[in-house]
């Protein structure tokens, strides 16, 4: 069993974080990594950081129309280069054919090879939010890569929430928007409650020591695994995968054994969602929008009706809701593009510039 098969059935939390970049033979152009440094960056708090490093991966010819792809929390741009995501989207004839588009996958502030607390500032690193992440992405594209227009902005989970913000803050910059595994509504209900408990579980651990720990606090591994199980993976999927206690224990053991990130980086990443609320700005979105969610998404349950109400405020918006099954993975479902590759291809044709 290869590494993808070994972990695809646990959680998106493990799926995107364990797979090494470029770990399979892809049929699209080779990815290239780079860095751009913002000489000065002012955060929403008013704090300023000089020489803010922003890392990114690109695929394809920079003279082609650009596609921006945004990763989820505690993930990176390169971690999305998996057989079931990039392998189904970036190849010849596929919806985001990398011979026709210039694909940009940045690492958000606070993660991967971009500037983050664990680089040295630790808990003195500026507090960032999703608006800061979007601003940094905009500056990376326009100042760093010279990109003035985007064929598409597509984001998963945290990246999906940022996609909504992109449409509001830079409404004339893109031809189309695809926010996935997300909603534009205020961070609230179980989604925020679990995130708050996740962060506080680590911060209240005496070993955390206000971010001045010398070894990673034990709460990090336990809290992150609890959060992953509670908010991703799919109810039907877990029942099929772990119908006995022994099988359930094996899944937990696998998740507990997964590599962990730095505690300060982790706390910052999850806390950054606290003030997210794209709902007030929906009327500013001009580009056609295709929202893609899964019916068993634990963080964005469709039965609340909030997504449907939000889409009514947009002129050119539709929703693809992937039905729940034992084969879907709750909030992690859309890491596999199989369920939406055809609709995404249709959407790209529908929104092609005339």
UniProtKB/TrEMBL annotation:
Signal peptide span: 1-25
Cross-referenced Pfam families: Abhydrolase_1 (PF00561)
SUPFAM superfamilies the UniProt entry points to: alpha/beta-Hydrolases (SSF53474)
Every AB hydrolase-1 domain range: 65-213
GO molecular function: homoserine O-acetyltransferase activity
InterPro entries tied to this protein: AB_hydrolase_1 (IPR000073), AB_hydrolase_fold (IPR029058), HAT_MetX-like (IPR008220)
Active-site residues from the entry: 157 (nucleophile), 297, 331
A Gene Ontology BP annotation from the UniProt entry: methionine biosynthetic process
Entry keywords, A to Z: Acyltransferase, Amino-acid biosynthesis, Methionine biosynthesis, Signal, Transferase
Highest taxon in the source lineage: Bacteria
tRNA-binding is among the record's keywords: no
Keyword Transferase (UniProt): yes
Family matches, as NCBIfam families: PRK06489.1
UniProt-recorded name of the protein: Homoserine O-acetyltransferase
Organism: Paraburkholderia rhizosphaerae
Source species taxonomy: Bacteria, Pseudomonadati, Pseudomonadota, Betaproteobacteria, Burkholderiales
């Amino acid at each position: 069993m290869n590494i993808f098969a070994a972990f695809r059935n646990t959680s998106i939390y493990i799926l995107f974080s364990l797979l090494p970049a470029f770990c399979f033979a892809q049929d699209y152009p080779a990815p290239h990594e780079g860095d751009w440094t913002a000489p000065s960056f002012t955060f929403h708090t008013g704090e300023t950081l000089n020489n803010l490093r922003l890392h990114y991966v690109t695929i394809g010819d920079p003279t082609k129309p650009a596609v921006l792809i945004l990763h989820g929390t505690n993930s990176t741009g390169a971690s999305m280069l998996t057989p079931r995501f990039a392998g189904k989207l970036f190849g010849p004839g596929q919806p985001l054919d990398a011979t026709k588009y210039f694909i940009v996958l940045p690492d958000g502030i606070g993660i991967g090879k971009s500037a983050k607390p664990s680089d040295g500032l630790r808990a003195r690193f500026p507090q960032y939010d999703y608006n800061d992440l979007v601003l940094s992405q905009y500056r990376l594209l326009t100042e760093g890569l010279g990109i003035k227009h985007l064929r598409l902005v597509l984001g998963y989970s945290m990246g999906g929430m940022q996609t909504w913000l992109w449409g509001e803050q830079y409404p004339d910059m893109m031809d189309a928007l695809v926010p996935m595994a997300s909603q534009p509504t205020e961070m609230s209900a179980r989604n925020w409650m679990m995130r708050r408990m996740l962060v506080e579980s680590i911060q209240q651990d005496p070993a955390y020591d206000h971010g001045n720990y010398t070894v990673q606090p034990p709460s990090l591994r336990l809290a992150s695994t609890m959060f992953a199980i509670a908010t991703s993976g799919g109810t039907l999927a877990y029942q099929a995968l772990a119908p006995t206690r022994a099988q359930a224990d094996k899944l937990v053991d696998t998740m507990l054994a997964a590599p962990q990130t730095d505690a300060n980086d982790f706390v910052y990443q999850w806390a950054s969602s606290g003030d997210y609320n794209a709902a007030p700005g929906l009327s500013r979105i001009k580009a056609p929008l295709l929202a893609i969610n899964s019916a068993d998404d634990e963080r964005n349950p469709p039965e609340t009706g909030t997504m449907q109400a939000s889409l009514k405020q947009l002129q050119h918006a539709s929703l693809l809701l992937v039905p729940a099954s034992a084969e879907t993975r709750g909030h992690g479902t859309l890491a596999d593009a199989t369920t939406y590759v055809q609709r995404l291809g249709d959407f790209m044709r529908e929104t092609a510039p005339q």
